[in-house]
Amino acid sequence: MLLIDLYEKKLIDDDDLKLKIASLRPYKKLCSKRIHLNQLRELHVLATGAITHESLITRELSKQSIPAYRLNKAQREKDYHLDSDRRLTAFLYTPDTFALIIAPMVLQQKEALGSMGNDAALACISDYSPLLFYYFQQLFAQVTNPPIDPFREQIVMSLRCPIGPEPNILEPNEEIVPRLMLEQPVLSLIDLEVLKQTTVANWRSKVIDIVYPVRHGPKGLVPSLDRICSEACAAALDDYQLIILSDRKIDKDFVPISSLLALGAVHQCLLKQKLRVKVAIIIESGEVKEIHDFCVLLGFGADAICPYLVYETCHRLRNLGLIDDTLTDAKIYQGYTAAIERGIFKVMAKMGISTLHSYKGAQIFEAVGLSQEVVDRCFTNTISRLGGATFDILATESLKRHRNAYPAVEEKYNYGLFFNFSFNFFCSFLKIYLLMINFRIIGDSKTLISHGTYHWRDGGERHINEPFNIAKLQAAVRLNDKRSYQEFSAASNMAQRLCTIRGQLEIKTSRNLQIPLSEVEEASNIVKRFVTGLYFSLLLFFYRKK
């Protein structure tokens, strides 16, 4: 690098130029003020003693009325079923979630292999109340921003990112508040506990509950978002450095707000109030589990994420013997985190972004099926071409998931009170019958049901390529059967209609819409306009030579 200084009228070489810039401010001293998570852990151990993953998991599971984790050890029972934790149903965990997504991450430290593409119904037209994450699609690199190979070019990739109060980079000084440096954005239970209790450099954390009473119904969502935003702004003004959005308080009386919705509302509110650089936003949520979930949260402004329910459930899976019992809670965290890191790298690389610092808060997503009121408030300036789900619809879907997890059938229909003891058997049968007929409305909290999102299930989520369609196509090809092809065509068209946006469109036809053949352009003339950029450049090159 060379600099020609026209004022001093001299040429400055590379070494002198770098030395001059490096000597302007005490950068080494400024960097030494950074706080690292390892330092916080060590200080926390010295102040309060060592904490373990198992102690934190046991403490939280004991609050969920799970017999195997009661506080009184004499009353504990053997853990037989995962579905005793009703939060799993509320946050849409299924057997496929563990078998196809989480277990490979923990055991192999990478995302499980799957087929290219997703032929399940879009979130906005699904019948199974999907989480808000699936209303967003990641945008990818264009010609001017080529993708990166995240493995061969790993030297340029980094998830290292500072969080916390951000100073004015144009006016650095030695009195600035130090920032916390995270090597990657996925927090363990211990990390989150340390951040909640830290007082290093006079830092404080504010936990904001992102739940609201079930009795408020769908209309309770927007006022709850207002309350969350008010608490976040007040925390920023009161010199809190960390804001933790937590849905830990989910139970039969409180329904969780989507962590993405709460994050978007808080992030945009702080930006409008010019307070965003004063705080870091940390997500403590049970609904976060897949790589896409992490990417969407990071893309819309999250600084760090703790998927607590994944850790707690993996702990139980190990105790149940469903995964390797030699895995400690620390190794489970390491394996899962390594898989999430690889996944985030791949997603960032497809957009040509090499550092998390550039990806975080960039909102490089497109919303499919969200109304403009939701986008304007929580995901400002995000592309949303269609419109769709409003706050009321999102709240209704959230309440439906909550009702499936915490049904009120047994309290609502206590038919045993109306019968004598001799009719107990009949009463039990009647209760079971009532549960069965109310299943579609109230759901079943006793079993984790697979909706068929990843693997097709009869009666589950719709897919474009369903077994019936494939069977009819094979029959049509092998037997040259016209009827089989017609059945395949009709079923395929219906699947497109039920799963895709273009399937919702219809071509308007009318006998009155007739175009004279003389007005139809010949195909030979139309083809002349089908030229690529390279073809056009070659034509221009030869034209200029002539």
Architecture overview:
It is a single chain. This protein is α/β, with parallel strands linked by helices. Among the domains are: 3-32, no CATH class; 41-118 and 144-361, TIM Barrel, CATH 3.20.20.70. 43% of the residues lie in helices and 8% in strands. The protein has 22 helices and 14 strands. The protein has helices at residues 14-22, 27-32, 37-48, 53-61, 87-90, 95-108, 189-197, 221-237, 259-272, 291-299, 308-319, 329-350, 356-359, 372-378, 391-405, 409-412, 424-437, 439-442, 467-479, 482-499, 523-527, 533-545, and strands at residues 3-5, 10-12, 35-36, 136-138, 161-163, 180-182, 205-209, 211-213, 242-246, 254-256, 280-284, 304-306, 365-367, 383-384. The protein has a four-stranded parallel β-sheet, sandwiched between helices. Strand 13 (365-367), helix 14 and strand 14 form a beta-alpha-beta unit. Helix 6 crosses helix 12 and helix 19 packs antiparallel against helix 20. The protein is globular and about 80 Å long. The two termini are 42 Å apart. Pfam families: Glu_syn_central. One of its GO terms (molecular function) is glutamate synthase activity.
Looking at CATH, the homologous superfamily of one domain is Aldolase class I
Helix count, DSSP H or I runs of 4 or more residues: 22
CATH topology description of one domain: TIM Barrel
Mean pLDDT: 84
- How many β-strand runs? 14
**In the CATH hierarchy, what is the class of one domain?**
Alpha Beta
Overall shape: it is globular
Question: How is this fold's topology laid out?
Answer:
Elements: E1 3-5, E2 10-12, H1 14-22, H2 27-32, E3 35-36, H3 37-48, H4 53-61, H5 87-90, H6 95-108, E4 136-138, E5 161-163, E6 180-182, H7 189-197, E7 205-209, E8 211-213, H8 221-237, E9 242-246, E10 254-256, H9 259-272, E11 280-284, H10 291-299, E12 304-306, H11 308-319, H12 329-350, H13 356-359, E13 365-367, H14 372-378, E14 383-384, H15 391-405, H16 409-412, H17 424-437, H18 439-442, H19 467-479, H20 482-499, H21 523-527, H22 533-545
Parallel strand pairs: 3-6, 7-9, 9-11, 11-12, 13-14
Antiparallel strand pairs: 1-2, 4-13, 5-6, 8-10
GO molecular function: glutamate synthase activity
Protein name: Glu_syn_central domain-containing protein
Domain Glutamate synthase central-N: 87-371
